[in-house]
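Hi everyone, sorry if this is the wrong subforum. Our group has a chain we'd like a structural model of before ordering constructs, and none of us has done structure prediction before. Sequence below.
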Amino acid sequence: MPRPESSKDIASFSECRVEVDKLIAEKKVLQQDNSNLQIITRESKAASEELKKEKRQLVRKMDVISRQQAAAEKLKSTSMTSASAISVVTLLWASFGEYGYPGPAWLFEHEIFYGFVCWAATTTFAWVARSYYEAD
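Answer:
Right subforum, don't worry. Here is the predicted structure as tokens:
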């Protein structure tokens, strides 16, 4: 039997009671559905907040990792520059010892002069490497 459109379509008081009972039952079902939807909405909002929080943490971790990678690359290039400079100076000093010094021997045999040449070579190599890496 279809639902009546108005009170005039209900013939007796007993039919009215049946319709009211049906409406009360339907109201209870709708209230339960509404309650379930609110619970689901609350849970999905909490899950959404948790995902946002996790995303922020992952973005921070990625930022830290990328900074660490950049620092590792910089350290690697710096150590290569320094090692190259010291290698060149060492080979140069070995060749001076074998073939003779271009200046006074006492100057080239002094530790302070050797340290200065190492510093100058490292600085020069670093300057050249910096201009090379900045060109990218």
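For your construct planning: Helices lie at 13-99, 105-108, 111-134. The two ends are 81 Å apart (CA to CA).
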